[in-house]
Amino acid sequence: xxxxxxYMWADSPLHRAPAVAKLVxxxxxxxxxxxxxxxxxxxxxxxxxxTLVAVSRVGWRDAARAAWALRWFLLxxxxxxxxxxxxxxxxxxxxxxxxxxxxxxxxxRIVVRTLLILVLGTLLTATTRPQELxxxxxxxxxxxxxxxxxxxxxxxxxxxxxxFVPTLLRExxxxxxxxxxxxxGVATRGIxxxxxxxxxxxxxxxxxAIRRADxxxxxxxxxxxRLSTPRGSDGRVERKVR
Amino acid sequence: MDEKIVEARGVSHAYVxxxxxxxxxxxxxxxxxxxxxxxxxxxxxxxxxxxxxxxxPLQEGELEVAGLNASDPDALWELRRxxxxxxxxxxxxxxxxxxxEDVAFGPRNFGASEKDASTLAxxxxxxxxxxxxxxxxxxxxxxxxQQRVALAGVLASGPRVIVLDEAxxxxxxxxxxxxxSAVLAxxxxxxxxxxxxxxxxxxxxxxxxVVVMRNGEVAATGSPADVLTDEELLASAGLEMPLVARAxxxxxxxxxxxxxxxxxVEGLVSALCM
Amino acid sequence: MYVSLExxxxxxxxxxxxxxxxxxxxxxAFDAGVTGVMGRTGSGKSTLLEVLAGALRPDSGRLLVDxxxxxxxxxxxxxxxxxxxxxxxxxxxxxxxxxxxxxSFGLLAxxxxxxxxxxxxxxxxxxxxxxLDGLxxxxxxxxxxxxQRRVAIASVLAMRxxxxxxxxxxxxxxxxxxxxxxxxxxxAADDGATVVVASHDANALARVAGRVVTLEDGRVTLDGPxxxxxxxxxxxxxxxxxxxxxxxxxxxxRRSGVVVAGSPLTAEELAAAIVLGRAL
Lengths: 242, 274, 280
Prior knowledge:
The complex is a heterotrimer.
Chain A: H1 13-16, H2 19-35, H3 39-56, H4 60-63, H5 65-69, H6 71-84, E1 92-94, E2 97-99, H7 101-127, H8 130-141, H9 151-182, H10 191-222
Antiparallel strand pairs in A: 1-2
Helix pairs in contact in A: 2-7, 2-8, 3-7, 6-7, 8-9, 9-10
Chain B: E1 6-13, E2 22-29, E3 34-39, H1 45-52, E4 60-65, E5 68-69, H2 76-82, E6 83-86, H3 99-103, H4 105-109, H5 114-127, H6 143-155, E7 161-165, H7 173-190, E8 193-197, H8 201-204, E9 209-214, E10 217-222, H9 224-227, H10 231-236, H11 243-254, H12 265-273
Parallel strand pairs in B: 3-8, 3-9, 6-7, 7-8
Antiparallel strand pairs in B: 1-2, 1-4, 4-5, 9-10
Helix pairs in contact in B: 5-6, 6-7
Chain C: E1 3-13, E2 19-30, E3 33-38, H1 45-52, E4 60-65, E5 68-69, H2 75-80, E6 83-86, H3 99-109, H4 114-127, H5 132-135, H6 145-157, E7 163-167, H7 175-190, E8 194-198, H8 202-208, E9 211-216, E10 219-225, H9 226-230, H10 233-238, H11 245-255, H12 267-279
Parallel strand pairs in C: 3-8, 3-9, 6-7, 7-8
Antiparallel strand pairs in C: 1-2, 1-4, 4-5, 9-10
Helix pairs in contact in C: 3-4, 3-6, 4-6, 6-7, 11-12
């Protein structure tokens, strides 16, 4: 079962693992995904990710949910790469577009990488409570505090972002339904039409995310949040970085 | 003798130079007073409210809140501590998805230790009737409960002035009533001054004083009995009288009663029984 | 348009490990005119609207439009073009650079000529007390909150839906914009549309609705003429809901010993009820 934050109640080694370990693991896996380039290497990483999904007991459908939601976007990425990546040895030419094997391979590589990273990200949020995630980020970054990195700020930013995700997801689902209704009575099944309506979704999503961020920053400021730590000149306690 | 907790003198503001959002707004509020600010969407209410805790820097005029100068950068945090704000959209004001953590955010920013912040958060949640909600997920609460969590987040810092910016407009009537009682309790128990921005004329009728805003200006200020019965004034500001006052005017037209229109149900009862 | 739900249920996954019934065996029919739907947050109002719009498929039960099954087969697409749904805070869905393009988007997508689209948009704007000539070239994002809501509703009305569904159309609006929205809803009903308005705002429903349905935990609890429900503060209160302000005032007056006749819904009716009460 899925909570509003994307966390899924279940008991698995991944759920029990400390957030710090999972964060470091995620960074490591993402590095592997980015470094893998040959089909064989990517297949090996994909197998690893599939094993993690099986171990997590999150379920295939839920693990693929974010990736599925972005399917049209990924398709556009694939098509654009296939047509525009290269013009050597084209399979066919249509105006400025050249369909090439190299382009297809490049598009497939990007899509597979994005898919794997999406699944990994979903796994992390599905097996880690938001608060554990925030304190995990804090612990992972705390050695960097000595180098002057504002750890508290980063941890807060992660926390705020994580708790905004479900709201934005809900909003995007509603927007999609609203658009479907508005364009209904028209054939909306065509791929290009889908892709266009997908892009049209991005505008209200973007506007909404900015508006929310603006309201939230006002609310945070109103409650005394500031990026610099208090000077403590008037007897206030200076906030310590944990 | 006449100490004021909010003193605004000629406050003007424009996001775009050619279209001012606030024009020469002056307003005094006494400690413990409940002031309702009413006006159309876009009449400048929110812009004025955001001046009160210096979310918007003062462009023109003078503003003092709880004895602190709003244009003094050194007084900024004291000012925000003295003047808390509850916003319209409950979803966009939480920094943590855990109720207790969110309520403790303010006190922590104002320098309280972790332990003190938790204690303050606990008592603030009790004050808004949400005892035992510390570990709950804010997103799983109803809109009305979320607004009370937001109010608790403000109360935890011990403000002297609480500004509510259309805080009831997105919640159901039950949630609205619960929030109103929690605010009134904060006023009577903590002596907080309340500045309530609203479209709800029935709510405005319960205030000590009503301020009508129109095109960025204060069109009128006075007791609910005076302001909320002035049909012409309210119409010019895109507002209408509370139902009780409208019913009274109709009664006068039908004949049988006379005298000034009441604005609350209690007022109507006593006017009819006279 | 005659729309009916037969024993419709729909569940969503709640937390942890339980299914929450958003709609639980709902049987309702809607005909021309305005029906108000009331219920507390989470009672299933929004879900009901989305099921009626065909945007959400129920887990069980039937949705009939003009007596025909609207969940299966070819009928689905035929009906969907005649349904308009105004979501909560619809202005959040703006995406065009100008108001005119925003309003005509749906019309043009349906193959209506630009001239006809402009004519219809202009008419819909008029219903909401706005002028397309005045606002058409502005960015929808730059309007005031009340104007944005009206533009959003106008863009649905311009499609001339036979079934118009609105979710909290007046929430957060000042009296002027609110009245403009309510009168536009009435005129859509006058043109023969079936209108369903979900709202917490009893006064708004008292102004537009002929019939009111209440929901509680996904079940229909009350269903009757507006005056029988919103004019009865005790009945609504027993279901945790608010009656019209005039009815609540009448109840308070009666409790203080003032005789008030009937079930008033508006200030004028309240005044008349007091005069009548005094005569009795």
